[in-house]
Amino acid sequence: MSDPIARIRAFIEERQREKRPFADDTDLIEGRYVDSLQFVDFVLLVSELCERDIPLDTVDIEQFRTIDRIRATFFAGVSSGAEAVP
To answer: What is d(CA 29, CA 26) in angstroms, rounded to the nearest whole number?
Structure first.
C-alpha cells in the first residue's frame, strides 16, 4: 500500500475496538479513534510515511487531529501514489 493516507486510515481501523466509520474531517483524538496509548505509534507512523523527523517532545496534537490536517501538514504536494507533485 503506497498511499500514505490509506496506510494511516488502516492503522486507525486496525486498532479500533468498536469498528466505527470516520471521515477525513473526523476528530480522531476527541472521538478516541486514536487513544493516548496509540498516539506515539501514530506519530511515528506519520513520521515514517512522510520521511521526516517529528520530535515527540514538540508534537502539536492539533496537527494530528484529523486526516485532513495530517494531509495538509505532512503530505502537502504529495499525490495519492506518494510521489512528489512537480
So the answer is: 9
Residues listed for the chain? 86
The CA distance from 86 to 77, in Å, is 8
- Here the cell at position 64 is 494530528
Considering only the C-alpha atoms of the chain, give the largest distance between any 2 of them, rounded to a whole number of Å. Answer: 40
Specify if 9 maps to a domain: yes
**How confident is the model over 22-78, as pLDDT tens digits?**
999 999 999 999 999 999 999 999 999 999 999 999 999 999 999 999 999 999 876
**pTM for the model:** 0.83
Burial 49-73 (b: 16+ CB within 10 A, else e): bbeeebeeeeeeeeebbbbebbeee
State how many domains the chain has.
Answer: 1
User: Is 79 contained in some domain?
Assistant: no
